[in-house]
Amino acid sequence: MYVHVRPDFTVVLEEAQDFKRFKLVVAPSRGEEARLKSALAGIATLSSEGHAWISEAWLRRHDAAPGWQQGLDAMIAVAKKYGWVDEQAKAIRAHIEWPGEAAAKS
After folding, report:
1. Total number of domains in the chain
2. Taking Cα atoms as reference points, which of 71, 47, 46 lies closest to residue 59?
């Protein structure tokens, strides 16, 4: 699954049934930090180390079905083994992809 910041700065959860992959995909350019931070308010924070911390509460609001919640629980359990869960902030670490940058390098 991935959190997708679309070009218009709307934020959606994509491929929500894929509990094996977790990332933040940001379509707008890095030069839009203020708008990006505003779009991600209550959803995620960006770290100075180049990754994001995604709100567990925001993820849980996506699907109330017990099976989906169990899948999320299992994904979080795996992330904990690697130190990718901030227990205090209740957030899960995700790497960030900037697809526009990859296209610009080509």
Report:
1. 1
2. 71
Answer for the pair 92, 54: CB distance below 8 angstroms, yes or no: yes
> How confident is the model over 40-58, as pLDDT tens digits?
999 999 998 889 999 999 9
Instruction: State which amino acid sits at residue 70.
Output: Q
C-alpha to C-alpha distance for 73 and 19, rounded to whole angstroms: 10
> What stretch of H or E contains 12?
strand 11-14
Report the pLDDT averaged over residues 10-32.
Answer: 94
Domain carrying residue 72: 2-105
Residue where the block lists tokens 């609001």: 61
pLDDT band at 102 (very low <50, low <70, confident <90, very high): low
**CA 38, CA 43: separation in Å to the nearest integer?**
10
Q: Quick check: 18 pLDDT over 70?
A: yes
Q: Provide the whole-model pTM.
A: 0.90
